[in-house]
Amino acid sequence: MPHQKKIIWRSPKGKVISCVEKNKVMAENLDEIRQICQDALEDAVLMGCDEVQVRAVLTELIVSLDNPYPPQE
User: Fold this and answer.
1) What is the rounded distance in angstroms from the CA atom of residue 15 to the CA atom of residue 3?
2) Tens of pLDDT, residues 16-44
3) Which residues have a Cβ under 8 Å from the Cβ of 3 and sit 6 or more positions away?
4) Domain boundaries, the chain
């Protein structure tokens, strides 16, 4: 199931990102990430891993991502 929740993306200053193409890319990225995470969770559970631990590891992975770009003004 694709990502269903409508997200209004905002800049660091709170301005709505209204560009159709930017919103399309963000939606596609989220759908891809969700599918990869879903596949990883299913594989892990089928191999006998604890679902709660797998979810915690995936959450930690997201939190640990680095932003390589300087803050935007």
Assistant:
1) 23
2) 999 999 999 999 999 999 999 999 999 99
3) 27, 30, 31, 34
4) 27-63
